[in-house]
Amino acid sequence: MSGMKNIIVPIDFSQYSENAFLSAVEIATQGNAMITCINVVNSELDWKKLPEKEKLKYQETIDLETEAREKLQNFILDHNIQTIVVEAVVEVGIPYEAIVHFAYQHQADLIVIGAYGKGYQEGRFIGSNLQKVIRLASCPVLAVKHVVQSVELRKMVFASLFNQVSKPAFLRMKPFIQSTNALVNFLYINTPQLHKTGVTSQEQMDNYAQEQDELIISKHVQEYPEVEKGIIDFCAKNNVGWIGIASNSRKSSSSYRIGVTETLIFKSDIPILSVKFE
Questions:
Q1: What is the mean pLDDT of the chain?
Q2: Residues 13 and 112 in one domain
Q3: What pTM does this model have?
């Protein structure tokens, strides 16, 4: 597994987080990566910096932390994963902050996270913790709804405008692409707002693909009124297993915004790998 050794999976004991865990097992097994399951006890306290005597004032938080450790250990034992190393970590704090900070501290190669969390109601937009993890994490984030099987990982779409500013994000995605041996489909959705000639789009994709000889890449330009619907339609027609997006939070026609990533997660069951860039 080229460069993919440390996978983080947030666990809140919802079905979606279990699906994320089982998906991570599929990914990790291909290259002997390790998985860290992290559960966060929701609290405004700066728990790590509190002296032990001060912590004793918050017995409820202590009890919740103890319960979470036991529950997370049982979660891992119940799944009886023997092919890879799986460890359990419990933190106290704001969930998305703790997840992002832990992934950064431990130089995670990937976060695999459920599209929704505990308490999800049908028809709602994606979970707020997921939105914030996507916006803040320095490593790639794979959002899943169902358990991803290894066969699904063999074919992917990388949807982009293929400008050079987003290329570093694609390069950070490469270890995951290589670990799954995925066939790569470069996809440019040519909307009326972003209209370019076919020649220009093709040239940009050609430039993007330079020095990527180790990847099998095909290139596609699709005319479509909306970016998200165009990507989803292409994936459905071509039996694509997952989507890669290099996105940022700035409102700019020069890149795919974070909002595209979030909308794709909401409107599609396809796993979405997001890498943010500035």
A1: 88
A2: yes
A3: 0.91
Crossing angle of helices 15-29 and 59-79, rounded to 10°? 50
Both 67 and 170 in a single domain?
no
Average pLDDT over residues 128-143: 91
What is the tally of structural domains in the chain? 2
Reported as type and span, the H/E element at residue 122 is none
Whether 176 is in a domain gets the answer yes
Of 75, 87, 79, 74, the residue nearest 35 (C-alpha) = 87
Q: Give yes or no: residues 176 and 94 share one domain.
A: no
How many degrees, rounded to 5, is the angle at CA 105 between CA 43 and CA 2? 130
Distance set, CA 46 to CA 98, 130, 230, 235, 263 (Å)? 11, 22, 44, 44, 33
DSSP state of 110: E
Question: What does residue 140 show for φ and ψ, rounded to 5 degrees?
Answer: -60, 145
In whole angstroms, what is the distance from residue 138 CA to residue 211 CA?
24
Angle, alpha carbons 69-89-149 (nearest 5°): 105
Show the domain range for 73.
6-144
Beta-carbon count within 10 A of 10 CB: 26
Tell me how far apart the alpha carbons of residues 32 and 85 are, in angstroms, rounded to a whole number. Answer: 8
Query: In whole angstroms, what is the distance from residue 127 CA to residue 266 CA?
Result: 10
Summarize pLDDT for 212-241 with one digit per residue, the tens: 989 999 999 999 999 999 999 999 999 999
> Final residue of a domain: which of 144, 168, 202?
144
